[in-house]
Write a structure and sequence with these properties.
The chain is mainly beta and about 725 residues long. About 10% of the residues lie in helices and about 40% in strands.
């Protein structure tokens, strides 16, 4: 490790290093350094409040920074000329990509130059780029320009078109790709996202890293990542990480590749170089054995131990209800115009004005639950999705389903399972995931040891009468996504990122992916959007993942054989569902702004005798008449069959009601990605589990008790009857 400029408390942060330049500074004291030989020399900066990035040209350099600052030097930093950008927002990044120079910053602002920075103009997609919010970094990957949003989004320009990708609202800071298309995105709080398909899809790394991560680059067969407290990490696969010792405490902000070495910039003007040999000396970070993490109690829960008076509660309630009524009236007017068939006149969504009340209302929810006053909680503070921020408290709620006795089983956060009976919320200890038979009589519990099949009326686990099904060698309890129990109560269809399996008490059979793909991936198999569905009679299976077609298997001579492969109308199969009254299967897929949910009648599936039965091959792209387009604009993740069609849950918190022919019958809005959905045995109530930590029960037959919700013009009946909230750091709350 070689120091190129030693840290000095009077120097200021190095926010960006690139070929021959380092820029940054504290507010009002910009910093510019250029490399002379092995060292970096400080220059007089241009007149600006701060600098954020630099780009070296053949005979000049461009700098960007605060207040729309864009500066050029043609004499190695001795003098600077300001270039007009027509923005007062901060510019955070400038790069060369695809023969052009690009810059970007606050509010999605972007400019492009095709003549080495002499003239600048907005790109064609400038208005769409504003949806990214603050663009904190631009990265070129081949001919693709990638944009990193502080609000947790990525943008990519392919063939002059901008596509947006939402990555769970994480505060992202940088992205990089290997020559083979492996992608790594990093962010605050140790956030690391991984893509193995050149950025089409992303999954979150399970690596336990606590540092805020600021930049990542591909350097000589490995990714190098830098962050706070002198953090330098390396990884070749985005799954296992090594920590490289720097013996520095400074916050490291940026890096660039320099002929197999890496140059890193940090606080107090620190710039240093690490060789390939230095990087190879990293110590592998080994994850600790899986254990139940101790509960982290949210600060607001501790605050709730001091009770609010009834006067305080009623005063807050009046504002909550009054402002909420105005908000939902405006929101309904905004939403309705998109389904009226007329041109939209309201361009902007209404502003939710109660976000400053979030902590107080959460405190009231804890208090009134503790005091057994849940009815008063619902009266004083009708549930609302938009008023809360979910980045730190939201978690997956689903699957969720009713049992025969009317109680509810729900999986929370991917690790815990609760049984809800009336006012009782009880965790089932030792269970990681759940599934059920179509008739609700048998429940599958994924414990750490095996999958256990029990009667739905029996809460106990580990009894000698239970049927235990061993996991496949590659699967553990935390890998399980969904389970469906066969009608005979002896087998389970298990979906995991490690494969789709048929489980019995004697063996497990890999159904998907096919043998060739599984062999090539080996222990590295990690499918995205892995999913599987079982028909009510247990004779047909639909499954797949983002890299496959929709695959359908049918029973033939006591074994499942492949009957159909259906290419989706958009990429990335993600969900499947069989109807319980009509012989149909629904197949959903998603792809950026496009999506598709297709249905197929099972009569088209015919297995001919012989060792190699003919497989039906259809394509949603070709508009095959045997496929019905049920939905073509939403990312569908959950659903249930209904008397006249389907109810399908999307990533934006809507449940869409469709007929078999794809006609839209209405919609319900709960908020956040729909993770699970079910109807009770009497068909009177619906359950919606969401990624925001909410489980909502909808009374589908009752008269609406409030307009305090997003309304569908086609739904006259129904209202939210109750909900449960499972926020991180909070006890389970009834609302």
């Amino acid at each position: 490790m070689e120091i190129l400029h030693e840290a000095n408390d009077d120097t200021g942060e190095v926010f960006h290093v690139s070929q021959g330049w380092a820029v940054g500074g504290t507010f009002g004291h910009p910093l510019v350094m250029s490399q002379r030989g092995k060292r970096f020399k400080i220059h007089s900066p241009p007149k600006t409040l701060g600098l954020r990035a630099a780009l070296a040209l053949d005979d000049s350099a461009l700098l960007v920074g605060e207040s729309g600052g864009l500066f050029v030097t043609r004499d190695d930093g001795d003098t600077w000329k300001k270039v007009a950008t027509k923005t007062r927002g901060c510019l955070f990044s400038i790069v060369r990509c695809g023969g052009s120079i690009w810059l970007a910053g606050d509010d999605g602002f972007m400019l492009r130059s095709e003549d080495e920075g002499k003239t600048w103009s907005p790109p064609r997609f400038a208005s769409k780029a504003k949806k990214l919010g603050r663009i904190s970094r631009l990265v070129g990957h081949g001919q693709q320009l990638w944009m990193v949003s502080h609000e947790g989004k990525l943008g990519v320009v392919r063939k002059s078109s901008l596509e947006l990708i939402d990555l769970d609202r994480m505060a992202l800071t940088s992205v990089a790709f290997s020559p083979r298309g492996l992608g790594i995105a990093v962010g605050d709080g140790g956030a690391i996202m991984r893509s193995n398909d050149s950025g089409k899809t992303w999954t979150r790394s399970e690596a336990e890293i606590e540092a805020d991560l600021e930049d990542v680059a591909w350097v000589h067969e490995r990714f190098v990542i830098v962050g706070d407290e002198g953090t330098v990490l390396t990884t070749s696969d985005g799954e296992s990480f090594s920590s490289v010792q720097t013996n520095r405490e400074e916050h490291l902000w940026s890096l660039y590749s320099d002929d197999g070495n890496v140059v890193i910039g940090g606080d107090a003007g620190l710039v240093f170089k690490m060789t390939a040999s230095d990087l190879a000396k990293g110590e592998l970070l080994v994850a600790e054995a899986e254990v139940d993490e101790p509960e982290v109690i949210a600060d607001v829960v501790r605050l709730a131990e001091t009770s609010l008076s009834n006067v305080e509660l009623e005063k807050a309630s009046k504002r909550w209800i009054d402002e909420g009524a105005r908000y939902y009236a405006a929101l309904n007017a905004y939403v309705a115009q998109f389904y009226s068939g007329k041109p939209a006149t309201l361009k902007d969504e209404p502003e939710e004005t109660r976000k400053d009340m979030a902590t107080l209302v959460q405190r009231a929810a804890c208090q009134l639950n503790r005091e057994g006053r849940v009815g008063e909680l619902r009266r004083m503070f009708p549930p609302s999705y938009e008023a809360f921020e979910y980045e730190d408290i939201g978690q997956s709620v689903g699957p969720a389903f009713y049992l025969l006795d009317g109680s509810i089983l729900v999986r929370v956060g991917g690790t815990k399972v609760y049984r809800l009976r009336g006012d009782e919320v009880a965790e089932i200890q030792g269970v990681r995931a759940i599934g059920r038979s179509h008739d609700r009589s048998i429940i599958a519990y994924a414990t750490n040891e095996h999958v256990e099949l029990r009667s739905s009326e029996d809460d106990a686990l580990g009894d000698e009468t239970a049927r235990a099904l061993p996991y496949p060698a590659s699967v553990k309890a935390s890998d399980v996504l969904t389970m469906s129990v066969f009608p005979d109560g002896k087998q389970v269809l298990l979906a995991s990122a490690k494969g789709i399996f048929l489980l019995s008490d004697k063996s497990s059979t890999l159904l998907h992916p096919d043998g060739k793909r599984a062999r090539e991936a080996g222990d590295d198999l990690d499918m995205s959007y892995a999913h599987a569905a079982l028909s009510p009679d247990g004779r047909t299976i639909a499954c797949g993942d983002q890299d496959s077609a929709h695959r359908i298997f049918v029973i033939d001579q006591r074994r499942f054989v492949l009957a159909a492969e259906i290419e989706p109308a958009s990429s990335y199969p993600c969900f499947a569902l069989f109807h319980d009254q009509k012989s149909q299967v629904l197949l959903a897929a998603c792809h950026f702004s496009e999506s598709s949910a297709l249905s197929l009648e099972l009569r088209h599936l015919k297995v001919l005798p012989g060792k190699n039965p003919k497989v039906l091959r259809l394509s949603g792209y070709d508009g095959d008449a045997r496929l019905t387009v049920v939905d073509n604009r939403n990312w569908i993740y959950s659903g249930i069959p209904r008397e006249s069609g389907w109810v399908l849950g999307d990533r934006n918190g809507y449940a869409w009601i469709y007929g078999f022919d794809g006609a839209l019958g209405g919609y319900l809005h709960v908020g956040s990605t729909m993770e699970g959905m079910d109807a009770d045995p009497k068909n009177e109530h619906l359950l919606f589990g969401t990624y925001s930590g909410a489980l909502v029960e909808w009374n589908r037959l009752g008269d609406p008790k409030t307009n305090y919700r997003v309304l569908s013009p086609n739904i006259a009946k129904g209202y939210e009857q109750r909900r449960w909230v499972f926020w991180k750091g909070f006890p389970p709350l009834r609302w």
